[in-house]
């Protein structure tokens, strides 16, 4: 099974989430649980997914002072998840605190997730940065934040696939890039601004492609997921 596709379970509750999983679990084995679902259902949903043998990216984008992030992350790591994230904008001290939690868990032989730093949300463009007073080129900000995450010892970042190749150049080929804002040409962008097709994302070096609405809101989710996987297979073949 292609483990590079992560489907975002952006649905209101556990029943709907498990329906989506049931429909897709022969096609996809990596699912993302975000704030909407986790804030309602909590750890028991993670247990449900893990009991089905699935991989879980818990996308809560922790952003707080180092002490709080550190304590929260400890609890999340204990859930047995495979991937989790913190906001790289939280600063070096906070990112290092996250790294220390992972290291402590490793020393205790606990299962540890991939820890990512979120750079600039894919729903933002240059204009959105200007609106909040940030007079910096968006791609430069992504580079700075990726470097911060790398220096702190994190495993990778969340960014647009548009930025994957220069992140790899800057931080190394094994520095993981997880990329939302993935769209087939036929699908709507909704609120996403930095959008890339699945084939192009892989060509640019993205390690994982996150897709939500185009699959989860489709009439036939399995067919929709297969279309993404087919384009990804085309991208990989073209790349090799
Ligand atoms: O920069 C980011 C970080 C996280 N996301 C999350 O990914 C999915 C994308 O869903 P689509 O429906 O495919 O747009 C969603 O859960 C976001 O919370 C992101 O889009 N951008």
UniProtKB/TrEMBL annotation:
Cellular component, GO annotation: cytosol
Gene3D superfamilies: Aldolase class I
Domain Orotidine 5'-phosphate decarboxylase positions: 4-228
Broad EC category: lyase
InterPro entries: Aldolase_TIM, OMPdecase, OMPdecase_AS, OMPdecase_bac, OMPdeCOase_dom, RibuloseP-bd_barrel
List of residues binding substrate: 10, 32, 59-68, 122, 183, 192, 212-213
Pathway of action: Pyrimidine metabolism; UMP biosynthesis via de novo pathway; UMP from orotate: step 2/2
UniProtKB keywords: Decarboxylase, Lyase, Pyrimidine biosynthesis
GO BP, one annotated term: 'de novo' pyrimidine nucleobase biosynthetic process
CDD domains recorded: OMP_decarboxylase_like
Highest taxon listed in the record's lineage: Bacteria
Classification via SUPFAM superfamilies: Ribulose-phoshate binding barrel
Reaction(s) catalysed (UniProt annotation): orotidine 5'-phosphate + H(+) = UMP + CO2
Record-listed E.C. numbers: 4.1.1.23
Pfam families: OMPdecase
Active-site residue numbers: 59 (for ompdecase activity), 61 (proton donor), 61 (for ompdecase activity), 64 (for ompdecase activity)
Role: Catalyzes the decarboxylation of orotidine 5'-monophosphate (OMP) to uridine 5'-monophosphate (UMP).
HAMAP family membership: OMPdecase_type1_B
Family: Belongs to the OMP decarboxylase family. Type 1 subfamily.
Description of how the protein assembles with itself and partners: Homodimer.
Name of this chain's protein: Orotidine 5'-phosphate decarboxylase
């Amino acid at each position: 099974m292609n483990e590079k596709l992560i489907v975002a379970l952006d649905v209101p509750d556990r029943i709907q989430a498990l329906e989506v999983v049931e429909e897709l679990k022969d096609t996809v084995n990596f699912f993302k649980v975000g704030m909407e679902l986790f804030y309602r259902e909590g750890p028991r949903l993670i247990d449900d997914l893990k009991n089905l043998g699935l991989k879980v990216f818990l996308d809560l984008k922790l952003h707080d002072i180092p002490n709080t992030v550190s304590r929260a992350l400890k609890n999340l790591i204990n859930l047995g998840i495979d991937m989790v994230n913190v906001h790289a904008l939280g600063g070096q001290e906070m990112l290092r605190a996250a790294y220390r939690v992972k290291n402590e868990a490793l020393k205790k032989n606990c299962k540890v997730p991939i820890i990512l730093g979120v750079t600039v949300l894919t729903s933002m463009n240059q204009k959105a940065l200007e609106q909040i007073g940030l007079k910096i080129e968006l791609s430069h900000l992504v580079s700075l934040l990726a470097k911060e995450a790398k220096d702190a010892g994190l495993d990778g970042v969340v960014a647009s696939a548009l930025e994957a190749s220069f992140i790899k150049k800057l931080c190394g080929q094994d520095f993981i890039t997880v990329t939302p804002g993935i769209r087939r040409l036929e699908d709507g962008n909704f609120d996403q601004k930095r959008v890339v097709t699945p084939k192009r994302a892989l060509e640019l070096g993205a390690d994982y492609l996150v897709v939500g609405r185009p699959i989860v809101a489709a009439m036939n989710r399995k067919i929709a997921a297969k279309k993404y996987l087919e384009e990804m297979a085309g991208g990989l073949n073209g790349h090799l």
